Amino acid sequence: MKLWMRLLVQIGPALVLTAQLAPGHAAQAHMHRCVDANGRVYYTDLPGAECVESRHDRLTRDGLVLDRPDEEVLPVPDEEEAADRNHERVAQERYDRMLLATYASEEQIETAKQRRLKTPQLSLELSMKKIGIHRTRLIELKQREAVLTDSQKPIPASLKKDIKAAESDIARIAEEIESKQRNLDQIAERFDEDKIRYRELTVPTTSN
Predict the structure, then answer these.
(1) What residue segments make up the domains of the chain, in order of their start?
(2) Pairing state of beta strands 65-67 and 56-60?
(3) How far apart are the C-alpha atoms of 155 and 161, rounded to whole Å?
(4) CA end-to-end span of the chain, whole Å?
(5) pLDDT the model gives residue 81
(6) How many CA atoms within 13 Å lie on the side-chain side of 78?
(7) Which residue, of 32, 48, 55, 64, has the greatest Cβ tally within 10 A?
(8) Cα separation, 20 vs 44, whole angstroms
(9) What is the pLDDT of residues 108-167, one digit of tens each?
(10) Is the pTM for the entire model greater than 0.70?
């Protein structure tokens, strides 16, 4: 075979493919590539008859495969997610064993809950008394200020300072009360969750 014929055989398919790809390259966001029964490759704007019974891919203009409409896309297992699920399972099993080893009944969990709440509850009650004292003092200071204002007398700087300090103390103690109440709620919720989990582990489920 002559040299020019061998070159034509080698580069001919590439020229055909280039000619098919070029018109749609600028106008279309993607192309379709398919292989017919005889192994011939086609690049078209839309899948034609030659692609009806063959595998075809959807490509970007840069030749990257977007998807294969005729193939089911299977999810790729996420190893990190699987490891996290396994870690959570192991941690839950360890906690379940601890729960069963610590308590013999839901009543014991409730008793432990009340015992655990006792100290923070007393601390909360103390803060409630403190804020009441500071509020009473603030009322007294405000009344003194009002009397001076009504009599058109100057308000001493020390009185203004005491009023500001009382307001600051009330705001600070109010934040403490909110934090202590939140802590109490979290403790109670934790024990209540333990009771629910203990019931799940110990009470047999009935099947229909």
Answers:
(1) 12-67, 105-202
(2) antiparallel
(3) 11
(4) 82
(5) 81
(6) 6
(7) 32
(8) 7
(9) 999 999 999 999 999 999 999 999 999 999 999 999 999 999 999 999 999 999 999 999
(10) no
Measure the CA–CA gap between 171 and 41, rounded to whole angstroms. Answer: 78
Contact by Cβ (8 Å): 65, 94: no
Gap between the Cα atoms of 22 and 159, Å rounded: 88
Tokens for 139, please give them.
Answer: 């009322």
For every residue of 110-157, DSSP letters joined together read: HHHHHHHHHHHHHHHHHHHHHHHHHHHHHHHHHHHHHHHHHTTPPPPH
Percentage, residues of the chain above pLDDT 70: 66
Side-chain-side CA neighbours of 85 within 13 Å: the count stands at: 6
- The first and second tokens of residue 57, run together, are 């891919």
